[in-house]
Amino acid sequence: MNEILTKNIVKKYGFKFSKSLGQNFLIDDTVLEDIIQAADITTDDLVIEIGPGVGTLTRLLLQRAKKVCAVELDTDLIPILNEELKDFDNFTIIHGDALKVDFREIIGEEKSVKVVANLPYYVTTPIISRLLKGDYNFSSITIMIQKEVAERIAAKENTKEYGALSLLVQYHCSVDVVRKVSPAAFIPQPKVDSMVIKLNKLPKPRVDVSDEEFFFKVIRESFNMRRKTLSNSLKNLKIDKEKLQKAFEDSGIDPKRRGETLSIEEFAKLADCIKESI
């Protein structure tokens, strides 16, 4: 049903897909339903949808949510969305870039806020980073993203997928992998598999650190050259060699280890010990 609806809207308005905006519209009914179920939308929720396309998922969200605010960058989609969803009085659209819009202004006084999105692959990581670092009061983020990125987000230590993105997301959220999605679920079809994941915001960060910015700096440096040992990677922090050595001793972490072997708790301990030593 949603496949026919989406294709009819695209044809009706003569819409041309933009490769530069990474547009792939979801048309598979089972995937749409799985996203809705995972997002767990109620009549108390303000839903912020990033990249609504022609409103296929938006329509389902509007039937369940208190309000839906869609953020869409493509000028050509604004009149289509306004026309197709005009019967919903709980719908608002913002013509803008999700990397620049003021989410605090959108949220206002709303207490229950959830993000749902079929994210363009090329902006997945910047958008996730912005949502998590912005300290907004989202309770969850349910997103369709490239399978490879989803695997990196959900990865644990001692795997090749594990890295700075895994740690950023898991510092702020628990991660649930909802399902894999094949290219056939979209028009036009992408060249890679996708995945739906749900990020549930933790009541407080997963680990306590004395300096959050420094904690993530240590993580980034540890993964800049994955094959290097920690003692070599962390030279870029420009810290006295003896002080760095003392931090390794105080944290109980072997400087010959690589960043990919450290748990988030070990990174927290190491970062705090380095901070104390300088």
Number of helices: 12
> Could you give the order of the helices and strands?
HEHEHEHEHEHEHHEEEHHHH
**Outline:** elongated
CATH topology of the largest domain, which one?
Rossmann fold
Radius of gyration: 21 Å
Classified in CATH, the superfamily of the largest domain is Vaccinia Virus protein VP39
Main CATH class of the largest domain: Alpha Beta
Task: Look at the structure and give the mean pLDDT.
Answer: 96
Q: How far apart lie the N and C ends?
A: 62 Å
The biggest sheet, with number of strands, parallel, antiparallel or mixed sense and barrel status, is:
7 strands, mixed
Strand content: 15-25%
- Side by side, the strands of the main sheet go 4-3-2-5-6-9-7
Q: How many E strands?
A: 9
Low-confidence stretches: none
Domains (count): 2
The CATH architecture of the largest domain can be given as 3-Layer(aba) Sandwich
* Portion in helices: 40-55%
Classification by helices and strands = alpha/beta
